[in-house]
Amino acid sequence: MLTPYEKILFAVVAAVSLYLASVTFRRMIRTIMRGQGRLFRDGLPGRVMTGIKALASQNNMIRNRPFVSLAHTAIAWGFILYMAVNLVDVLEGMIPGFAFPGEGAAGQAYRLIVDLMTAAALAGMAALLIRRFIVKSPALDIAPQVQLHPGAADGIRRDSLIVGFFILGHVGFRLLGASFDIAIDGPDPWQPVAALAAGLWTGMEPSYLTFGLHASWWMAIGLVLVFLPWFPYSKHAHLFMGPFNLMTSRDRSSPGAMDDLDFEDETVEQFGAGRITDLDRTHITDAFACIMCNRCQDACPAYATGKELSPAALEVNKRYHLRDHMKSLAKDGDDSEPLLAYAMSESALWACTTCGACTEACPVGNEPMFDILAMRQNQVLMESAFPNELKGAFTGIERNGNPWQMAGDRMEWTETLDFKVPTVAENPDYDVLYWVGCAGAFDPGAKDTARAIATVLHRSGVDFAVLGNDESCTGDLARRAGNEYLYSIAAEGNIETLNASGADRKRIVTGCPHCLHTLKNEYGTLGGRYEVMHHTQLIGDLRNDGKIEVKEEEGTRATYHDPCYLGRHGGEYEAPREALAAARPSLVEMARSRNRSFCCGAGGAQVWKEEEKGREAVSDNRFREARETGADTLAVGCPFCARMMNDANKRAGEPMRVRDIAEIVAESMKA
Amino acid sequence: MNIIALVKQTPDTAQLSASMDGLRLSAEGGPRIVNPWDEYTLETAIQAREEHGGKVTALCLGPPEAADALKTALAMGVDEAILVSDPAMADSDSLTSARILVAAIRKIGRFDLIVGGRAAIDGNTAATAVQVAALLGVPLISYVADIGSLDPEHRTISAVRLLEKARETVTSRLPALITVVKEINEPRYPSLIGIRKAARASIPVWGCNDLELDASTVGAGASGVDWKTELPTTREANVEMIDGGPEDAARTLVDRLMEEKVI
């Protein structure tokens, strides 16, 4: 199709484009490689499948924002198809007589699919442009209290406009090309949309039509060649960096399980992330994979309550900083600018509840939560600059083995029970180790829950024991507050105690999802491998075995608040609901439940400090939602959720009853 | 500026247990900590150095285990730590302790400012630092809640003392000794880098020979004061939960307190 001059011109333009792209892509890859750790490749076929599946199915998108996701799916599928279409078009242009896949049925099908997908992609892109620039969807804004790179707000708009017109132009000119083809060669029933467009050229001179055909080819293919080197500087890079990110990320034992730091290695001089090159490579990749859709921001409890934190802004700020410094970073240049100078404010850093909603919501597998945790590590381990209230909790764990700084007896909660709770020393042949947790031992509300759990265990004949005063804080709060060193000391101590107690050969049950998550998912790398259950899971087993019978209590309606560390981090949504439904058959769900559950505000060591300034308390926001269900009982499965919801309940004038599921079950057990 | 921080290791009085040998430090005597007032001492000294340059030396008198307290001091950021320890010095009273500390301070040499805590939580005499000042013949400003100005060039210090019902600003020449109260600052939490530096640091131990002290002039034998401590016996406490709204609960609480003749 192309003239010889055009072919030469194409070869030159393509060569220049590929050369420039090799320069900018290498720059991007070298920048990523400035990070720590590695990009993961183990089990490569599975990883590749993960990426392909995410790209082809668009599953990660469709869970939220259905209409936008539909438009995106049209564009994404269109683009996947266009990878083949562009190749075919280039070959058709360069090789005279080349026609793929011919004129037969295959060709008809190909032309029909391309034609329809072209129309769908154009419609999808138009819809997204209208959403951003005409409807001005507020979901695309980042609130003014959040720190944002000075160039980002305009930059994102400009980038979106360029990408939008690139897609409209690329796909649109391909359509016009097909329409000129029809105008020249005659009607093609297999390209209904192009045929419709061909109507525009009725009566046009053949030379104009040929010019139109060539011009369209050049625009459609030329736009790709122009855009190609620009990809690493555009958020549109997400189309391959998204799947790449999903393919190269760390396999975690849970979505929130953190990596250990090596404190033995004397040559290590940086702990946590002070600067962008201290972040993991996978987390620098996050910034390149981010399309700035703000889905993580939609899910973030800190953002929803007016704090300075937006996980989306974090990725945007990282990306714009990288954009500004990519050339120097790629050449091993020094980047001395602290992350806290541009990525987020200190208040934002300490506003994160580590609920994991951001990582759950992100379609491209970004983990903003882990950047926050790494930055907290830098603040605690390197700078010793963190909210003052946390010092008390740290000192408590160090000296008293609990963050409350309580020097008391960890068995005191058992004194009002009418049966004896045995310690491991008293009952070394136990079947189940009940890990009470610091809350169960010291928090007045959680002691009631601990007694309820012990009662359920006792009445259903479970042979159990507790560690008593040998139990100590798991270190979850220290770890989530950035004090990895204290966590490692706490963890090693507990692992020694647990293994000496034979807990590694038994089952552990706990009422605290934070203890559960740490014992089950984080101690493994330090030599503590345990089978750990939440009390509601054990209740489920006991009911299945007919060990306990629960009376249904009619006339009360309960709603259930998913604890982040049992739900999103622990993957358990059903056991608590089943245990609760046995006693309270009329369970009403909150709008945000299961993997979309909204945090109570306690996690990530928040409960040990003042809440960062914002519009409202996270707990009030969640409690309001619970109340709107019309339920009279708010069932919880975590002592910290219980405390936050109890406080919110008190502030609201106690319209609800806040109870742990263990208490509800214990109350309604048939004696 | 050369600053000396006086640090003591004490039992964690929040965790007194019957297994402890009174309030004396012993290996099995429960957890031992940096005297909480001395955390403020260390923070004061470190902040002064951060502002005016120079060097902070932490000085501790105690058994060999007290080196742990100096590790904490090093982790917080002091430049040097010296442990004064000798079996002969055991059970020195405050005046004898002050004499030993003064010998150590003279061995350290030049100093511009000595900082101590208002008291140690175990003996609670609040006397040792005062006696050190007296023996050295330097001015003392006690109960300091704020250092208004510290001027190494003109060799003056102006500090605010926290008195029971007033605040008193005292100006003195340097060298001087100050004792601090917890209102003065917020002690820092040692960073991991600090902890690692402290773990690598060697802490010199000075005994009677190093300080050229005759063993007969130190320890229990040379002390005019002897003491005996009894740990509080646990008292039976009744817990009574008061239900009701804030106003009702407050009213009930007042009634109950009056019934019990507490008020």
Largest beta sheet: strand ordering of chain B: 9-8-7-10-6-1-4-5-11
Number of helices of chain B: 6
Number of distinct beta strands of chain A: 8
Specify the structural class of chain A. mainly alpha
Any idea what the shape of chain A is? elongated
Biggest β-sheet: strands ordered side by side in the sheet of chain A: 2-1-3-4
Mean pLDDT across the residues of chain B is 90
Mean pLDDT of chain A: 95
Largest sheet of chain B: 9 strands, mixed
Tally of helical segments of chain A? 28
Q: What name does the CATH topology of chain B carry?
A: Rossmann fold
Strand and helix layout:
The complex is a heterodimer of chains A (671) and B (263).
Chain A: H1 4-33, H2 44-57, H3 59-62, H4 66-94, H5 105-134, H6 152-185, H7 192-198, H8 206-227, H9 238-248, H10 281-289, H11 295-299, H12 301-304, H13 311-330, H14 339-342, H15 346-349, H16 357-361, H17 368-383, H18 389-400, E1 432-435, H19 437-442, H20 444-459, E2 464-466, H21 476-480, H22 484-500, E3 507-510, H23 513-522, E4 531-534, H24 535-544, E5 558-560, H25 574-583, E6 587-588, H26 618-628, E7 633-636, H27 639-651, E8 657-660, H28 661-667
Parallel strand pairs in A: 1-2, 1-3, 3-4, 5-6, 5-7, 7-8
Helix pairs in contact in A: 1-10, 1-13, 2-9, 4-5, 5-6, 6-7, 6-8, 9-10, 10-13, 20-28, 24-25, 26-27
Chain B: E1 2-7, E2 9-11, E3 32-34, H1 36-52, E4 55-61, H2 67-76, E5 80-84, H3 94-108, E6 113-117, H4 128-136, E7 140-151, E8 156-162, E9 167-173, E10 176-180, H5 192-200, E11 205-206, H6 246-259
Parallel strand pairs in B: 1-4, 1-6, 4-5, 5-11, 6-10, 7-10
Antiparallel strand pairs in B: 2-3, 7-8, 8-9
